[in-house]
Fold these 4 entries.
Entry 1:
Amino acid sequence: MALKSMTGFGEGAATRAGIRVAVELSSVNRKQLDIHVSLPRNLVTLDAQLQQLVRAEFSRGRVSGIVRVEAADGSMGAVKVDQRLAAAYVAGIRKTAEKLKLADDLGAQSICSLPGVVSVEQEEMDADHVSAVLGEATTKALRGMARMRLAEGKALEKDLRDRLGLLDNLLKSIREAAPTVVSAYREKLFARLEEAGLQDLASDERVVKEVALFADRCDISEELTRLKSHLSQARKLLRAAGPIGRTLDFLCQELFREINTIGSKANEIDITRSVVAFKTELERIREQVQNIE
């Protein structure tokens, strides 16, 4: 099953029994499924139906949108002019014009354009009649959004696979450099002993023990094994069915934990460079993962 993004947009419309319903939906990333769709005030009882349709399709993301309902013949409904409000506007404007000595050029068109003067009273529609049409229009919008989320997911999957490949290469570099950490420390220790004229202590039991303790402290074999395992799991997840975003995010956290441990243990220039590059690339992966369902 292909990976899905949480970013998408879809729209759908349906007409039946003299009613036309248009639905626009969009989604962005969110940890949980969060649905906010605006319905006409007289049809808010249909919100549960709409929520059920969305939840059947998606499990994560913030889904927002708007539902428009109108007569199929395009009729606007009854136009109502608030005569009292219009008269109040006229009285106020004329009083202001007289006080400021301005020309009184009021016209019907300018008065009707003032806020609240003209309104359109839509014919009340029965929620039961709208329900079936809403379901059809919403399904179309959800399919469109699902297609977009899938297309975006394919692009994300390719990007993630490429970046996981980069992490593999960096992990290989760290693994190859790891054996040099102990030998470099031993050489530095012996050089200091020689500088101090204590080269005869190179084979001293205490020196040998110190080198052994250092080797144990900077051993990163376990971290390397876990990093390899986590990267393998991430690749398998990209082929898995169902939502994988949260699991990938968890793996990113574990990868960060292991690479940070390596950085603190292996104080060697080549390993440090690889660790920094690994963390930079991993941060980019984690940013992408936030948008995966």
Entry 2:
Amino acid sequence: MRNIAKSRCQLTEYDIEYMSCTSVKGQAIADHLAEFPVEDDTPVNSDFSDEGILQVDDEEGLPTWKMYFDGVVNSTKPSIGAILISPDGRYYPVEAKIDFPHTNNVTEYEACILGLQAVIDFKVKELEVFGDSMLTIFQTLGQWKTKDAKLIPYHEHLEELTENFEKVLFTYTPLIKNQFANALATLTSMVSITK
């Protein structure tokens, strides 16, 4: 109480008025429940008609492989990475460095292709792919056209790789939600690999 009074005095100097927040007290809830009791002896009607029952198969609930990919371009060598997550929750990181002229979009395509090739090696048939590159995801989904001549071969190769799957879903994931692949690609770019 002493600190609140002190704060009020300091705030009056600037014509600011302190208003305390009101909260629901436990006694108010108890009083409400006492005024409006719930009768426990109400019988439960257990007669259900079979007319309104529908069965829905939830195929979305089945565990599938997931892949997160990302490419990093910085002052050191650019790198690409992908994280493969098995249905039982095991993580398989895949990373590589790029030693040729590139753009940011090329690194994103390279990362996606690297991840897909690794998943194909695991003989996976159903896959969910997540990436923070709108260009790569939306071009693969066919929502955007591939106009850049440098990206057309990457896009065609990615399309060929997707034919190895019975079911593959591509989902755009904002950068903040693609933390695994982003961290992997960033770490790969900072580490020098010696042969």
Entry 3:
Amino acid sequence: MTSSTPSNHVFVLMGVSGSGKSAVANAVAHELKAAFLDGDFLHPRANIEKMAGGHPLDDTDRKPWLKSINDAAFAMQRTNDVSLIVCSALKKHYRDILREGNQNLSFVYLKGDFDTIESRLRARKGHFFKPQMLVTQFATLEEPGSEEKDVLVVDINQSLDDVIASTLKAIDGAINKTK
């Protein structure tokens, strides 16, 4: 196993549901030949069962999940030049948990307004959209402030191809800054 170097970097694609995290991360990972993990796959069984029962998760439920993502980020950073993880990371506290012990971890905040994201969610085929879920996501969102220097912001109020290009440019800039 190799040790972390400045070129080994983990990027967490964050944002509310419908912001395009998975689609963008898949395309960017393919383009960069980067490792990719959807953080939802790391939810403990209890969280999955709770959500399946229609109950929202609270911070107590999320803590072990965020710790698992943190561990995955640590492992991915040690073995891959570039890694991408999809995780909503809506609260600063959640982002702080993900940062712990991961010096070359940055966030890519896929930022969009409510109306844009709502229209995209409504247009999804085979996706059951509950408007209240998006309202809750925006209410929970603590937008990264200027004190969070490791957050790259990508405006999603553009085509998917342009969002992907903007994300690639932001990631390239962050990687080159650490070299």
Entry 4:
Amino acid sequence: MASIRIYGGNPLHGDVTVSGSKNATLPLLAASLLVEGRTIFENVPRIDDINAMIDMLRALGAKCEFIEKSVLSIDATQINSVSAPYDLVRKMRGSFYVAGALLGRFGEAEVPLPGGCVIGTRPVDYHLDGFRRLGAVVEERHGVMRAQAEKLIGTRVYLDSRYRSVGTTVNLMLAAALADGVTVIENASREPEVVCCEEFLTQAGADIGGLGTDVVVIKGVKRLTGTRFTSIGDRMEAGTFLMACGCARGDVRVHGVSPQHMRAVLDVLQGAGIRIETGPDWIRIISDSRCQAFEVTTEPYPGFPTDLQPNASALAALAVGTSVVEERIFDARFNYIDELIRMGADIQVKDSVAIIRGVPRLYGAPVEATDIRAGSALVLAGLAGEGYTEINGAEFLSRGYQDLEKKLQGIGAVVTRSRAAEDDRMRNVWHR
């Protein structure tokens, strides 16, 4: 098991550029299965979840090759399988996007139910119901979803307005892009990552209306053709760096992200008294003292993103006053709280609400990450904490962040990554 070690208490200064969005690129890679010919994606993050999805596409018969560091070529013309391997699907939930693409192109798909981060119940029932609405016969047996349709027919699908499921919206768009007739998705997700997928499909020849709205209309076409497309910057990574500066203090400019995509996050930071400046594709944060307490409720876009809720809790742990953080998307996303408490945070959780009484400082400690975003929250706490923090489970961070340690080092953090072979020896040195 890998670990990250941080020596906290160093303000952050300088410029950092985010990588391409993980949550946008995963649907894009799945969507490439619909395309006849070569697709080239730019701004692809080099992270473990993306590598796993590329392995998935290759297992299905696609030709995938990085032609530059962040430029990926995919040719899915010769797909020779509609069965996704379990050992790849179990690694992350985003792999289930291939179900809609395979069903849409070939009229059948066999995909094991997905794995990924353990952050609560995330059933795929909405996806399967949507496939059925399009005319597919869907079975779920022994952990494997099998869907088959002689012909998919456009229909109207209503999603739960409380969640506006990202995954369901994407999977139904992929399944409907080549279907007969018109498909209307009501209460569709409006997340920037979903819009990015809509824009790619449109550029490849799909007929999609209502981009960025909660009613998406897909008119089926005969074929999609290869194109070159650039993914958006990762707003979750941007939010992580912004809140890292809020925790550790300093002056950081984050490049490669649209401030418009970050509006809910920036509103919280500014409401907490933190100075924010923005440009076309950058955000500057200036933090020279403890921020004020704030309230956050996670909601579908344009609300505050659930993926940044753990980071918000780390920031609230150091705020002046009592903050309230409510989680409305996932039912087990406070599994990092005990680790923050270990570092000196004053937090009480009741059901889906965390009451966080800010403290003047946190203290370095050995802690463990249980998922990607929990890990990032512990990184933030470690950057602000006094002394050394050792975060076990750093492999989770590799799933969602490209070159995290290098980027943090570039803005002044003292952070290194080690392997298990070194851990016992170094732990004895650091904690004498």
